[in-house]
């Protein structure tokens, strides 16, 4: 099968949607499919061979953050050329409501279109605005996918239809078999992954909570891009040496950071439809502590697979984290249950579900 995947966000910047699309392409190729990914990108040196770089993206506020997207006449021309040269059996667009390549491909494709929706916010003004653009083109979407129940609810409320829920995927063994790095570990180790300067990721909350926990042997690993010096200055002098800022790292080093942690903390404050990093941490063997966002509660099966705290509440975060650090049997119980459940997110299963969707819309 010839599959065209459309990524709305720049591949020059790491992100959950971008990683999902690249991993899906890789898995489909290993299964014998011919795959091409169209995405905004300029730095072609680091891109896989299956990616077609559409050009420079521009920052646009989208879904409570700033997405680097591509739109306009040049983007439209490149979308049409990619479609014409690809001779695809199916085009799979991610986040078709974003003002980017997917929305253009939705109007130009003359083959069956599958659309995956990642946004999860029933009160989203973005989705409300996008609905007016999408509804006239809904006949172009042969099948809809939502990455979570929460994303499905958002889609049904704003757009309608009956999407199938297929979660984000990951290569579980890449995290399960990752080796901890002793130099990153303290007597106990906490890990965080996310943009340092994105307030929705909640690093400021975690730093404040960490500073209130007086444990000289406790280590915090912070993975992600942003202003490290600004983040470090938020910490009291006496605990700065206990925090290791790793900056942006590749997937191998991210997996090793998660494998080095006793507890992974997700202090996110909103805008999450799924929480793939929770699943990555679960696969790496860390006990997970997350804010009680609806999407996170569902991934953690209402605290069966990980602990939760009240979102945006620093004191509750510190209290629950302290209890989790003190209770080794509970940490092992949570990580053991999670290590079983995480297999359902492996690409060996997720890609099969996506293939079945393709088969329902493609006349092979």
Secondary-structure map:
Blueprint: E1 2-6, H1 16-30, E2 34-39, E3 51-53, E4 58-62, E5 65-69, H2 73-86, E6 90-94, H3 101-108, E7 113-117, H4 125-134, E8 141-146, H5 149-158, E9 164-165, H6 172-176, E10 188-193, H7 203-212, E11 218-223, H8 228-233, H9 237-240, E12 243-247, H10 251-259, E13 263-266, H11 276-284, E14 287-291, H12 294-299, E15 307-309, H13 314-326, H14 328-341, H15 347-361
Parallel strand pairs: 1-2, 1-6, 2-3, 6-7, 7-8, 8-9, 10-11, 10-13, 11-12, 13-14, 14-15
Antiparallel strand pairs: 4-5
Helix pairs in contact: 1-15, 2-3, 7-13
What does this 3D model show about the protein?
With 364 residues, the protein is an alpha/beta fold. It folds into two domains: 184 residues, Glycogen Phosphorylase B (Rossmann fold, 3-Layer(aba) Sandwich), CATH 3.40.50; 172 residues, Rossmann fold. It is 41% helix and 20% strand.
């Amino acid at each position: 099968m010839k599959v065209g995947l459309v990524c709305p966000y720049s591949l020059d910047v790491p992100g959950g949607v971008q990683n999902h699309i690249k991993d899906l392409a890789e898995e489909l190729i290993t299964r014998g499919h011919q795959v091409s990914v169209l995405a905004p990108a300029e730095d072609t040196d680091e891109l896989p061979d299956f990616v077609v770089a559409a050009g420079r993206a521009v920052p646009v506020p989208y879904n409570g953050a700033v997405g680097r997207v591509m739109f306009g006449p040049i983007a439209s021309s490149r979308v049409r050329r990619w479609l014409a040269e690809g001779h695809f059996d199916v085009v799979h667009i991610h986040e078709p409501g974003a003002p980017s390549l997917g929305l253009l491909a939705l109007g130009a494709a003359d083959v069956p279109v599958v659309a995956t929706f990642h946004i999860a916010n029933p009160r989203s003004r973005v989705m409300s605005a996008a609905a007016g653009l999408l509804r006239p083109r809904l006949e172009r979407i042969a099948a809809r996918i939502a990455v979570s129940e929460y994303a499905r609810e958002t889609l049904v409320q704003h757009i309608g239809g009956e999407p199938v829920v297929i979660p984000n995927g990951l290569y579980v063994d890449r995290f399960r078999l990752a080796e901890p790095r002793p130099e990153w570990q303290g007597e106990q180790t906490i890990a965080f992954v996310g943009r340092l300067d994105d307030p929705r990721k909640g690093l400021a909350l975690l730093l404040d909570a960490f500073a209130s926990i007086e444990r000289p042997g406790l280590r915090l690993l912070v993975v992600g891009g942003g202003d490290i010096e600004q983040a470090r200055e938020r910490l009291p002098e006496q605990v700065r040496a206990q925090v290791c800022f790793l900056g942006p790292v590749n997937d191998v080093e991210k997996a090793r950071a998660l494998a080095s942690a006793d507890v992974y903390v997700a202090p996110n404050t909103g805008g999450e439809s799924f929480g793939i990093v929770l699943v990555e941490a679960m696969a790496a063997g860390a006990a997970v502590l997350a804010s009680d966002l609806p999407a996170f509660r569902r991934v953690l099966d209402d605290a069966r697979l990980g602990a939760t705290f009240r979102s945006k509440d620093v004191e509750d975060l510190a209290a629950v984290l302290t209890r989790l650090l003190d209770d080794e049997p509970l940490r092992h119980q949570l990580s053991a249950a999670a290590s079983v459940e995480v297999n359902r997110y492996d690409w060996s299963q997720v890609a099969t579900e996506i293939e079945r969707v393709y088969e329902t819309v493609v006349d092979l």
